[in-house]
Amino acid sequence: MTIAEALPLVAAAADASLRWHPGAAYRLDQTLFPLQRGNGDPSFAVHPSGFWLAFTTASGPVTLRLSAGGSGADSFVDAQAWGPGAEAAIAGVPRLLGAGDDWSAFDEPAFHSTLPRLVTESRRRNLAVRLPSTGRMVDSLVPTILEQKVTTLEARRGYRYLMYRYGTKAPGRVAPQGLLVPPTARQWLAVPSWEWHKAGVGPQRSATVMRALQSAVALERLAGLDATEAGAKLQTIPGVGIWTAAEVVQRTHGCPDSISVGDYHLAAYVGYALTGRKTDDAGMLQLLEPWRGHRQRLVRMLYLSGFRKPTFGPRMTVQDHRAH
After folding, report:
1. Partner residues linked to 1 by β-bridges
2. Integer Cα distance of 131 and 98 in angstroms
3. How do residues 257-303 score in pLDDT, each as one tens digit?
4. Cβ-based burial of 21 (10 A; exposed 0-12, middle 13-18, buried ≥19)
5. What value does the CA radius of gyration of the chain take, rounded to a whole number of Å?
6. Phi and psi at residue 240, in whole multiples of 5°?
7. pLDDT at position 311
8. What is the 3-state secondary structure (H, E, C) of the chain?
9. At what angle do helices 227-234 and 242-252 cross, to 10 degrees?
10. Do 197 and 133 meet the contact criterion of CB atoms below 8 Å apart?
11. What pLDDT digit, counting tens, does each position of 208-251 carry?
12. Which of 1-10, 66-75, 100-109, 292-301 has the lowest mean pLDDT?
């Protein structure tokens, strides 16, 4: 029996479940997209039966399945969870799916009229997207640190290697084959130096992970702060700068304003999208300043618009030091 065939029988026996109504049109795929670390993310599976996520809560590991139904104001998301962390995961589903993400100020006519046409057209086509909020600091911070100053390909390759080595099988007998729960802070701290090396993660990034997770309990408490304060406290960790903090709070807090200053592509992308010309970080921040408070929303709409910047110019070289 396949997962899709077995699911109707097993879903009723889930350890916890919820049907969440967003109250408006809703796109589950667009909302969850920022949480997936590439198509090969072992903790995130896209399946005909829904979206499957595996992670650890304060109560233990959990497998969470999310599937969308209905349309317009009658849209809903069904959530089923298996494992010791099922109740905690279900309690966090509305937040995860963007229940607290309020676009009303962005859509207010006076503000909306100031936005570039590319953004307003994208928003018109993408009214159903929300910014997700996981509240899971460790799960977001570790892979973000691995993405520092390397290509996405390198970072995700290293993350997959470490997940396959130190992740644990997702709970529940209906979880897709290969779905893994990311390591806990304690498990990350136990990764030996040679395994970081085999994953292609240099000593600077692995040391940053180790420093950040020394106070994992305090780190997870940042989920209860507002995004600005959480981002500032993250930056007190040596090796965690503005880019890393922004990338984290975008996912953990659904921050509508944080901008990934220092990103290899973002400044040029925003520059071309808004002016037709390449710009740097300072230029990007100047361009986005009129929409402070909603700058991440604007960037998200740019990405969803389908705009692509010119592809000429040098690319960051993929480095592989694993054999050294």
Report:
1. none
2. 5
3. 999 999 999 999 999 999 999 999 999 999 999 999 999 999 999 99
4. middle
5. 20
6. -110, 110
7. 77
8. CCHHHHHHHHHCCCCEEEEECCCCCCCHHHHHHHHCCCCCCCCEEEECCEEEEEEEECCEEEEEEEEEECCHHHCEEEEEEECCCHHHHHHCHHHHCCCCCCCHHHHCHHHHCCCCHHHHHHHHHCCCCCCCCCCCHHHHHHHHHHCCCCCHHHHHHHHHHHHHHHCEECCCCCCCCCCEECCCHHHHHCCCHHHHHHCCCCHHHHHHHHHHHCCHHHHHHHHHCCHHHHHHHHCCCCCCCHHHHHHHHHHHCCCCCCCCCCCCCHHHHHHHHHHCCCCCHHHHHHHHHHHCCCHHHHHHHHHHCCCCCCCCCCCCCCCCCCCC
9. 140
10. no
11. 999 999 989 999 999 999 999 999 999 999 999 999 999 999 99
12. 1-10
Q: Give the β-pairing of 44-47 and 50-57.
A: antiparallel
Both tokens of 234, joined, read: 């993250």
The residue to which tokens 């349309």 are assigned: 71
- Lookup: tokens for 179: 């779905």
Whether 318 has a pLDDT exceeding 90, the answer reads: no
In angstroms, the CA 35 to CA 41 distance is 10
Give the model confidence (pLDDT) of 252-270 as tens digits.
999 999 999 999 999 999 9
Q: Scanning the structure block, which residue is given the tokens 């953004």?
A: 119
